[in-house]
Write a structure and sequence with these properties.
9 helices, 203 residues, single chain, 83% helix
């Protein structure tokens, strides 16, 4: 029993890291907040996204029988998500010439960072699609322990990733603009992709 629980948690940890680490809109925002504001701001973007994941988990369990109805809304959610990502890409470009002092933070920056991560993940149809399919299948196969490992993996990533970038920024001056360029390109690319996928689904 204990070994089964540990195996499920370990599998969840690996899955959480594998899903959180690849480039995407949330990581782009974590990166930009980490270098323009602070480690905590980057971390809170990740916390906001993780909160959306937790909400999607609950909704997926409750609405699994309504999967077909939920799928019909995905194109419209995708268009909303594209608008949100395009807006944040524009916000990141405004930081290009505003190189902050180490650990600087604006008023209400932490709350805004959390809300940003929550908004981006909540307006993307793909996290809820994953929970409705792969997420529920994993829980069925490995048990609830997989959720502990899954969210632990995400928490590990959103802690280590902004810390690494913040540390690199202190050592290498070019890190700031390199991260901002990555963020803008990633957010714009995902916005375009969401628009394309929405129209493809509607036609």
């Amino acid at each position: 029993m204990v070994l089964d629980l540990l195996a499920g948690a370990a599998a969840g940890l690996a899955i959480g890291l594998s899903l959180a680490a690849p480039p995407g809109p949330v990581n782009a925002l974590i990166a930009s907040r980490a270098v323009t504001r602070s480690w905590r701001s980057g971390f809170l973007v990740g916390c906001g996204a993780m909160t959306a994941d937790a909400g999607f988990l609950v909704l997926s369990v409750l609405a699994f029988s309504l999967l077909s109805a939920v799928r019909s809304l995905f194109p419209f959610i995708a268009l909303l998500g594209a608008a949100v990502m395009a807006y944040f890409a524009w916000r990141v470009t405004r930081s290009w010439n505003r190189i902050p002092a180490a650990d600087s933070a604006e008023p209400n920056a932490h709350a805004a960072s959390y809300a940003t991560g929550l908004a981006v993940n909540a307006t993307s149809p793909y996290p809820i699609l994953w929970w409705l399919t792969g997420g529920l299948a994993l829980i069925d196969r490995l048990g609830p322990a997989v959720l502990v490992g899954f969210f632990a993996g995400i928490l590990l990533w959103i802690s280590a990733f902004p810390w690494t970038l913040r540390t690199a920024q202190r050592r290498f001056a070019r890190t700031y603009h390199a991260v901002l360029a990555f963020s803008v390109i990633s957010l714009a690319a995902f916005a375009i992709w969401l628009v394309w996928s929405a129209f493809d689904a509607l036609t």
